[in-house]
Design goal:
Length: about 220
């Protein structure tokens, strides 16, 4: 993505793993400290991107604990000493991630570490020069989180360009997901850049006007 204009933040992404998941690194130009969101796989490649950015990763913040978002956490943490943050309602999914991944990939998988701290709605994830507001957006999973900073929304698998995250996986709830999207995310300014866990970026205003799931939910509410 293009980096925000007149911003002290650096933002870059890397697509990792067999599920083509977007891992995001947000760093401060001044302090060179940073946060990585959803290191799903290929920790060495994530670390190489951070090095190229000149960013020291201090915090790992996960939107949720599905295997395509969490399997790189241990490698990044062991290399950097970064604190790993997760919503408490994701602990069951996280603790089953290694077994789930081994079943899909056909090989043993090292489990992700236990979180160093647990996140809740309204919290702030912060390192020197970078601050993310935590928005609890359940539906894709019970503890799904989105992170907002300086007109950018890192929304994991809650909202996609023209689509939404699946709700037929463990802990998914379609009604809850639509409430998260319409009541929480659509309340953000139209020009908010949406940086999802898969596929391309979009904007809140675009999704409000064109996303078929959002339009259907808004129509349903108007008819009630």
């Amino acid at each position: 993505m293009a980096e925000p204009q007149v911003s002290e933040l650096m933002v870059r992404s890397i697509v990792v793993g067999v599920f083509a998941e977007n891992c995001w690194i947000i760093g401060s130009r001044k302090t060179r400290e940073g946060i990585v969101i959803d290191p799903g796989d290929q920790p060495q490649e994530i670390l190489a991107l951070a090095k190229d950015m000149g960013v020291n990763i201090k915090v790992i913040a996960n939107s949720h604990a599905h295997i395509d978002h969490i399997l790189g956490v241990r490698g990044v943490q062991e290399a950097t000493g970064a604190k790993f943050l997760l919503h408490p309602q994701e602990l069951e999914i996280a603790r089953g991630a290694a077994q789930a991944a081994a079943g899909l990939l056909g090989r043993p998988v090292e489990p992700p570490p236990e979180p160093d701290a647990l996140l809740a709605d309204g919290d702030e994830v912060e390192v020197a020069g970078v601050k993310l507001k935590v928005i609890h957006t359940p539906g894709h999973t019970p503890g799904s989180l989105s992170f907002y900073s300086e007109g950018m929304l890192f929304c994991g698998d809650t909202l996609f360009r023209g689509s939404i995250g699946r709700t037929d996986l463990q802990g998914g709830d379609y009604g809850q997901e639509m409430a998260s999207i319409v009541d929480r995310l659509m309340a953000l300014p139209d020009d908010t850049i949406v940086l999802p866990g898969h596929m391309q970026e979009t904007k809140i205003g675009i999704e409000r006007e064109t996303n078929p799931f959002v339009l259907e939910e808004l129509s349903r509410r108007r008819s009630e």
